[in-house]
């Protein structure tokens, strides 16, 4: 799982804390790097209103905060 986030993002910090509390292994990538930002935006290109954080799951699908991120984490079994 890859978590795309940015510095000083409360929602990004909240999801990181939640994942850590649940002992979920994830790789964090900061969108402060323009290449990483482009990579993250490409994942949700069909959702121009997408907002950080964005999570890309192992199967390749991605969900942003405005797309029911918490609901998706629960439905996929990531969160208990």
TrEMBL record:
InterPro entries in alphabetical order: Glutaredoxin, Thioredoxin-like_sf
PROSITE patterns: GLUTAREDOXIN_2
Domain Glutaredoxin: 2-41
UniProt protein name: Glutaredoxin domain-containing protein
Organism of this sequence: Candidatus Termititenax persephonae
